[in-house]
């Protein structure tokens, strides 16, 4: 996405256009499902100096504004992506942590309906499918030695 388009999206979301915000959104557009630490490293490598705290602040502000989605697969650091608003799901590799988008399982959001809502107005369902990515499937299984 062009920097002008990102700047317009920031303004439409009520956020100021700053270099760290543009850099974080640029990195996430190219590297979806990245952790905050990965985003910070990539921003520094491609856009110059920026503090880790600034990256965390950008991630929080853009998530609150609906420009980013935060996902938290069990046992993993939070990950961020720019694909928002469509209630898609994820595939996560048990070995390497690679995360891949999966379109909504059934119909329109929330895609799944609980048997009992307990009075809640359900508007989203988060589903994570776990398995082995194609690359990790090629890794030979570890040989486990038995204790004598």
| Count of runs of 4 or more consecutive helical residues | 5
- CATH domain fold name of the largest domain: Arc Repressor Mutant, subunit A
CA-to-CA gap between the ends?
Answer: 59 Å
| Superfamily (CATH H level) name of the largest domain | Winged helix-like DNA-binding domain superfamily/Winged helix DNA-binding domain
Count of DSSP E strands?
6
Report the major sheet.
3 strands, antiparallel
CATH second-level architecture of the largest domain:
Orthogonal Bundle
Structural class: alpha+beta
Percent strand: 5-15%
User: Mind telling me the CATH class of the largest domain?
Assistant: Mainly Alpha
Q: Unreliable segments (pLDDT under 50, ≥5 consecutive)?
A: none
**What is the residue-averaged pLDDT?**
88
Number of domains: 2
Shape: globular
- Enumerate the strands of the largest sheet in spatial order, edge to edge or round the barrel: 1-3-2
Output the radius of gyration.
18 Å
Instruction: Determine the fraction of residues in helical runs and give it as a percent range.
Output: 25-40%
| SSE order, one letter for each helix or strand | HHEHHEEEEEH
Short description:
This protein is α+β, with helices and mostly antiparallel strands.
């Amino acid at each position: 996405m062009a920097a002008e388009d990102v700047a317009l999206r920031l303004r439409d979301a009520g956020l100021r256009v700053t270099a760290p915000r543009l850099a974080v959104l640029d990195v996430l557009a190219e590297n979806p499902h990245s952790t905050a630490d990965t985003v910070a490293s990539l921003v520094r490598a491609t856009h110059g100096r920026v503090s880790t705290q600034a990256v965390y602040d950008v991630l929080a502000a853009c998530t609150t504004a609906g420009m980013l989605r935060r996902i938290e697969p069990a046992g993993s650091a939070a990950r961020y992506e720019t694909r928002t608003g469509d209630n898609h799901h994820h595939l996560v590799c048990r070995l390497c942590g690679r995360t891949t988008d999966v379109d909504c399982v059934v119909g329109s959001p929330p895609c799944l309906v609980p048997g009992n809502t307990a009075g809640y107005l359900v508007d989203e369902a988060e589903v994570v499918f776990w398995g082995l990515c194609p690359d990790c499937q090629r890794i030979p299984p570890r040989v486990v030695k038995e204790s004598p």
